[in-house]
Amino acid sequence: MGPGNDTQISEFLLLGLSDEPELQPFIFGLFLSMYLIIVFGNLLIILAVSSDSHLHTPMYFFLANLSFVDICFTSTVIPKMLWNIQTQSKVITYAGCITQMYFFLLFVELDIFLLTVMAYDCFVAICHPLNYMVIMYPQLCGLLVLVSWIMCILNSLLESLMVLRLSFCAVLEIPHFFCELNQMIQLACSDTFLNNMVMYSGIILLAGGLFIGILYSYSKIVSCIRGISSAQGKYKEFSTCASHLSVISLFYFMGLGVYLSSAATQNSHSSAAASVVYTVVTPMLNPFIYSLRNKDLKGVLMRKKGNTFALY
User: Fold this and answer.
1) pLDDT in tens, 114-148
2) What is the pTM of this model?
3) Is 21 exposed, middle or buried (0-12, 13-18, 19+ CB in 10 A)?
4) What is the largest CA-CA distance in the chain?
5) Terminal C-alpha separation, the chain
6) What is the pLDDT of residues 46-57, one digit of tens each?
7) Phi, psi (5° rounding) for residue 29?
8) Which residues pair with 13 in a beta bridge?
9) According to the model, what pLDDT value does residue 296 have?
10) How many CA atoms within 13 Å lie on the side-chain side of 1?
11) What is residue 138's predicted lDDT score, i.e. its pLDDT?
């Protein structure tokens, strides 16, 4: 392919985490193991919430949705990566790359929306316990999840359509293990001003705005907990949202660390390796955080151990 623009792109090359052939079996085994843990762990939470009536509450409804999104999130990128390692190929089609980028954006944004909704749920549970079931009634919970899906679908669709308008240069190598929006924009030969504007506006309005909502909810939670006189009461209320706070901290701080490291270094492989933290490690740790720190969920999983789960 000659230099210059080419709007008839057929494929890209995903360079992955390493060019060293001897490391490929290790990377394959590591990511396959983590993927199986992610799918099994999050599926176990979904089945536990579905099968036990004691967990049919808003908190666990949102948790089951988060687990489902985490499975979809990692399934968007890891299977293709494993397939490329197994077949010793780095190729991904243009259509496949755009599709992967769309679903990656969709599920990342859904993660952020659900974490924000769960922060609001914790706020209502701690600050308005007597009116909790009145405020967080089932229709509202379903509506919050539905609105999250609609907004994420529309924003991801906008971002993907904006990429379709770009033409690309002769160098079609993506220094990553999946098709990431920023990397796609950097490969373009045409003007990317609108793409960058839409991308950074989305980051500021969605990620930034939702993070402010999370901070507001937890500022109210802290105020409520400080008003409790007994130390035991404070600990009990804090334990209600401890798991969620741990997941939020892990997701946001790891994601922020990735983007700060990307800005500070020109090593694309280092940036790709850092992305593993929030694309793979965080979804893998979420089930452990919730099952180990949440007594109700831990109790259900212990009671169900060895039995076959039945979906209601």
Assistant:
1) 999 999 999 999 999 899 999 999 999 999 999 99
2) 0.88
3) exposed
4) 73
5) 56
6) 988 888 888 889
7) -65, -40
8) 91, 173
9) 67
10) 14
11) 94
Q: How confident is the model at residue 159 (pLDDT cuts 50, 70, 90)?
A: very high
| Amino acid present at 238 | F
Strands 91-93 vs 11-14: parallel, antiparallel or unpaired: antiparallel
> Which structure tokens are listed for 233?
């009461």
Helices (H), the chain: 24-51, 58-86, 94-127, 132-135, 138-164, 181-187, 193-202, 209-226, 231-264, 268-276, 282-293, 295-304
Backbone angles phi, psi at 91, to 5 degrees: -80, 140
By CB atoms closer than 10 A (0-12, 13-18, 19+), residue 263 is exposed
151 Cβ partners below 8 Å, 6+ apart?
109, 113
Burial of 77 (0-12, 13-18, 19+ CB in 10 A): buried
Whether the predicted pLDDT of 152 surpasses 90? yes
Question: Alpha helices of 128-230 — where are they, by DSSP H?
Answer: 132-135, 138-164, 181-187, 193-202, 209-226
Residue with tokens 């924009």: 185
CA-CA-CA-CA torsion sign (127, 129, 130, 132): positive
Average of pLDDT values for 63-74? 94
CA distance 236 to 240: 7
